[in-house]
Amino acid sequence: MILAIGEILVDIFPGYRRIGGAPFNFAYHTKLLGMDTALITRIGDDATGSDIFSVLEKSGFDTRFIQVDSNHETGRVIVTPDQKGGHSFEILPNTAYDHIELPDKPADISGDRAVDLIYFGTLAQRTIHGFKGIQDFLHKREPGSKCFYDINLRPENFSNATIKKSIGNTDILKLNSEEIAYIRKMFHREQEPDSETAGWLIEHFGLEIVSLTKGADGSDIFTANAHKHADVQDSEIADTVGAGDAYAAVLAVGYLKGLPLDTVLSIATGFSSKICTIKGAVPDDPEFYEPFKEQLSGAAHV
Hints:
The chain is an alpha/beta fold. The chain is built from 10 helices and 13 strands.
């Protein structure tokens, strides 16, 4: 099974709002792509939290792992589009997901099922409570459980210590162009190209995969022995929120299915491009996923 840990919130766009948060987006995608997925998160005891709970229940998530906080509001993010097709984010502090209570160890969630992959990010570690809780939880995973760190750096909501500890406690690292540039600066490696930075991260931290998304310049997957590139696929863009989370979800599913890197790149690129054709990070219609489920299943049996 896949276990995702972290924030769930509401993204407030000009004129509309959507449920968001990278761990939720990732978990929603992997579940609708046919994977056994659990999400550990925390919402407020408020109208927004109630709406989120209903969506999770309707989508088939085990709501035992959705904590309700009577003292803190459901997370909110004010999303402002820019003229380049990107977005800026105002992330409100001290919300419910900052107070997630994790079980002692992953096995307490999975029961008889093996936890094949644990997904986590940076935002839910912005407090001492969140950082300590997630890192302690990861350390208690079973030997066969892999960790997927989707770095997702949000200004004023992370520390270098959190990044370093998280990279050292993962197997798959997902980041974008801005984030790998920050990593280079953080480790005093400013002059080297992406491929050298990825290679150094793999060697220094013992990573299996570094995944790099570069917007209009496509994406790359690096391992100790390979480098694969995919160009971006053309699509009519409604907005780009959640494209990286969609990419990460297919990367995780493809990895667990043992698919070739070229295949994973192709499907991940197609799926993230398709997500850009809708408003918000996740589609309302489950039929949206069917072509990609077929691609992943077909590739797994080749």
